[in-house]
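Tutorial, part two.
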Amino acid sequence: MTQRPFVFNRPVERIEWVIEQCRLLTAIGAELEQTRPFDGLTIGTGIHLEPKTVALLLTLLSGGAKLVSTGNLNTTQQEAVDYLAARGVNVVGRPTQDASEHDGYLWEVVRSRPQLLLDNGGDLFARYVEEPYDGLLGGTEETTSGRMRLEPLREAIGVPVLVINDSPIKQFAENRHAVGQSVLESFIRLTNKSTNGRRVTVFGYGACGKGVAANFRNAYAIVSVVETDPVARLEAMLDGFLVPEREEALRSADVVLTVTGAQGVVTAADLPLLRDGAILANAGHFPWEIDAAGLAAAAGEAGRRIHVLTDGHMVNLAGPRPLGNSIESMDLGFALQTRCLEAVARGEVGRESCVVPVPRAIDEQVAAAFVKL
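Running the prediction step on this input gives:
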């Protein structure tokens, strides 16, 4: 029988297309329906709610979990909320740019006292440290930003937390390849401007910064990299990028992209360095790398025009029609998430594994399974 084709302007069909294309998660979900590692357990999640995370959360449901889930600031998609709620997920909150409202949603997840936490940016584990409770087995953290936030809290957390972003698979498949593609795609979609001959400055030359710089260069932009680590700066130079001093890089830029995880990378104090009409965008997890409000106020007072895309929130997951990273990269990353949560639920890692990389055995298991698909 011929399957009816998907119509991509229908939100439900877009979600179902993504679920169908997450072939590794689909295979894992079929296995978990038989093994049921999450029976009797509640998983609390705070992660971008969009079609690919729908596929992840439904996979966890298939393993017997109950889910209490909320999104991240300014990246929650209502269609994903509705789809999950209709399938038995307790979704907390709604799309919001209000940090205090979002804080309330995060506390509601933590105060439901889940046995496992799937965190993104350290939001849930940081709140657990403020209000610890009995019964937490451990969980996962998705991002570098979250790992940096949680490392000083290891002793207070005291349970296994496996950091997905420290997996080599996550570094090359999602951060280097997929983030670079999605940031370029989002820039073009949001601005409708070409990149050819544009002078682009990228702050940060970690895995994500490498991908962003490479993709903009491949789109015929003239790319400079600003990196505080001398070794990473040398690597950027040997990779063929310009590596000017910070002030020169800002003065020359038509487009400025931040991919560092640090706060206050570009602020109102930098306005005199920026070209009139410069476009700024942030690809880091938290909306604190670019002081969007401060720049807007300073530019208005000076009679200048500075454009900050998506108000400094993640440019590839905020704004109109956000798509995020490619399905294949997230299928791999979320397979790591699922296998790590399974390992914690089964007691295969102990408290000595608090804020540590994904175990090598899980990396190898996921890589081998994806290659065979």
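The radius of gyration is 21 Å. In part three we will examine how such features are distributed along the chain.
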